[in-house]
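re: that chain from earlier
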Amino acid sequence: MIKIYRKTCMNLLIYVFLFVIGKGTARADEVTRVFLFAGQSNMVGSDANPKQIDEFPSFKGAAKQQDDVLFSCHPGNGPGETKGWGPLKPRDSFGPELTFARQVKTRVNGPIAIIKFAVGGTTVAFDWNPDAPDQGQKLYPKFLKFVRESLKDLEKRGIKYRLEGVMWHQGENDMLDRNLYKKYSIGLSSLIRRLREDLNAPQLKWYIAEISEKGIWGMDHRHNLGVLHQQQALVLQSDPLLCWVPTSHLAFAVMGNGQPHYHFGTQGQLQLGEAFAAAYLRDVGQSVDQTGKSSKNGFPAGEKSKVRLFVLAGQRNMEGEDAFLSEIPKVAGFETIKQSQERVLFRYSLGGGVKASSGWEPLGPVGLLGNFGPELSFGNILRHSIDAKTAIGILKFTHSGAQGPDWSPKDSPESHRSLYPKLLAFISQAREDLKKRGLDSSLEGVFWHTGENDTFYSPYAQNNAKWMKNLIEQMRLDLQQPHLHWYISGQHKDSPWRNIELVNQGLKDLAETLPNITIIPTSDLPHEKVHFGTRGTILLGKKMAETYLQNNK
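^ sequence. v structure.
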């Protein structure tokens, strides 16, 4: 993950928002916060369908017109353009602006306006280059003109405004060209500097979103994307007014043939808007991040002297993509797992560290994207089956955007993607903390769900079993537990990825060559279009727990 050193923005003044969109006027003492949204296809909102928004429980109603948010969208966005200012609403597609505005309004009481200018398939090297007006699509002068005209129109309406920040998502096309990708930092820095000068806004903040590693480019252009990431890091580290917006943990569309998409798609765009909002709100002292839960009775282990520890690790399904907290009460027998389980210790790092506990918590939902993984039902089953005198602890370490090379004990050439040393430290630190508390701990097993991002991509699928063998052997060695049991759940027969039989057979063969490996079949579980979904995820956790109990009668 990119480390960014930036000054904390001063808390902004809060104003009462009495803007009436129909009249296009505002009180003289109001200040409207103006945000610029710019970039290429993922900022445009390609493959995001407004008709699908209500399919995602956390975003029901997000397609509703927001009369209290002004929106000006450039014709470069095609059918989504507006003629002058209008209320914010989705057109044939939508980008992150919808949920950005919705989230910001929950913390900021002043009026909001968004100017959007995004064109797919464009580069910083040519199309957005302010110093090369005759190359590419000549976007910079068009962008500048559109922003100035939109701001001038606000002035004509008697609306006071303040330029608040630029939300930027772009870089895919620069990344694809090896003649361009090592020049990205120079191009983006030049664009940022020039826009500040031309808008007379020297302190204008930029919020720069990561190019997701969960899409297909994170696999077949892994090296190129790694270089682009380094280039973005150079820009961010050189300017304290820039903020990083991680995105590889967000939902990312999957094509009908099982290929990870080039675009976020509907759910990913909704989450991207909230990611931009979270970054902005942190800067103005209005963080939406949830703090860790505390136990009503202090340290959740109570008076126990021994803790059985279980590690749950992996990517998409283990993190819990498309398993929605709001749907838990619909699954008979598990209605209560949405509540904190005070008798189960919990420690977690999700999304590659985007959301992590500060210490031990009682097991329960942690609020990342409104999702949950198999840990809730897993802990519930174990707690009702294991002697109450023994404490249970769950260590969850996941990254839904990760791939096989990221888990390799040997550092990846894209060092920022290396997860193994972090996983090892995560487990070791948890055990050390228990020891300091006077508690003995036993590491009972690692529960691993086979990587979905690896299954589709044939070069990864063919190496999956070999990579798993290296991971298992090295972790046993590093933890000094040569007999550490691994429970590996296979890919579901109804999942969209190809190479499913190849991957699952490789795991079965692995279990025959290495001791203490149990393969957990999953084809009997419910499964949605892409992931297990709410019911399937709950039953996956149940099956994992029952498999452990059966092995340890």
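Residues 1-28 have pLDDT under 50 and may be disordered.
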